[in-house]
Amino acid sequence: MTDRLRLMCVHAHPDDESSKGAATMARYVDEGHEVLVVSCTGGERGDVLNPNLKDDPAILRDLAEVRRAEMRAAQEILGVQHTWLGFVDSGYPEGDPKPPLPAGCFALEPIEVTTEALVAEIRRFRPHVVTTYDEDGGYPHPDHIMCHDVTVSAFRAAGDPTAYPHAGEAWQPLKLYYNATFTKERVEGFHAYLTEQGLESPFGEWLQGWDRPSRPTTTKVPCGDWFERRDDALRAHATQIDPGGVFFSIPLAVQRAAWPTDDFELAASYVPVELPEEDLFAALPQEVAAADALARSSNLELAYDTIKERSAT
């Protein structure tokens, strides 16, 4: 390739990028495109989920720096660019009733503040495509929900020259996707394949207790050849993943046979699309100059828009 389209993937914490769409990112890097991961927070309030490391005093002494080092390692493995948006992890409130979120955390920041920070990154990197989480955050972590809110807000504002004029020259990304990693469809697909092959499935009880509504999957990106890179990047976040857990319990050959794609939900597009898709860059001009000109156009109109506003309640 001589032209490099640009993809921005917005995540709440370091490690989220390696568990959601990482194989797709690695594929696009290898194909010559530019990929930028934005981590909204530093993951400072995360738990140590690896049972082999949970009592390590060096980790407990400075988890924030450990997670930065893990992110650098994962970034190198995937070959992506990376930036910190600079907000503070909110932590995951647990208990009944749940405790209030800590003052100054990402989820409590004014949306205008978080939006301007991401608008500045969008206008600097000039992505043609942006990915993030759905309005429920993928799961109801306050940082994931805020990540959705700020990304949708910034996607809308970045192309408006009157919005946040000090954040750089206006730039309109052309497509917005939600990660569709942990869908019932995908889990059922794995479970069915494993059962048909006479293999033990870890997903039976998981499916019995499934209580989340189904969401549409519009885009399946073939990326099975990059599953090793995905898993290596995820292991680089050593404090955040159990090496003996379900993420690594299914052999890669089985994963490629059962579900060889990363899945996404198209939320908004400024170009006419034909669904389903197999490429996040589908329907975009493949020459960067043409794609850039389109993104700078003042006459863009949404051709496809399923962005859903979260209820104020």
List keywords for this structure.
313 residues; alpha/beta; Rossmann fold; 8 strands; globular
By CATH, the superfamily comes out as LmbE-like
Evaluate the radius of gyration.
19 Å
Number of domains: 1
Structural class: alpha/beta
Query: Helix fraction?
Result: 25-40%
> Could you say what the CATH architecture is?
3-Layer(aba) Sandwich
**Average pLDDT score:** 94
Total number of helices: 11
Amount of beta strand: 5-15%
Write the layout of secondary structure elements.
Layout: E1 6-11, H1 16-19, H2 22-30, E2 34-41, H3 57-61, H4 63-78, E3 81-87, H5 111-125, E4 129-132, H6 142-157, E5 175-179, H7 184-196, H8 204-208, E6 219-222, H9 227-236, H10 252-258, E7 261-269, H11 288-296, E8 304-305
Parallel strand pairs: 1-2, 1-4, 2-3, 4-5
Antiparallel strand pairs: 5-7, 6-7, 7-8
Helix pairs in contact: 4-9, 5-6, 7-10
What does this protein look like?
The mean pLDDT is 94. Strand 4, helix 6 and strand 5 form a beta-alpha-beta unit. The chain has eleven helices and eight strands. Strands 1, 2, 3, 4, 5, 6, 7 and 8 form an eight-stranded mixed beta sheet that branches. The chain has a single domain, classed as LmbE-like (Rossmann fold, 3-Layer(aba) Sandwich), CATH 3.40.50. 35% of the residues lie in helices and 14% in strands.
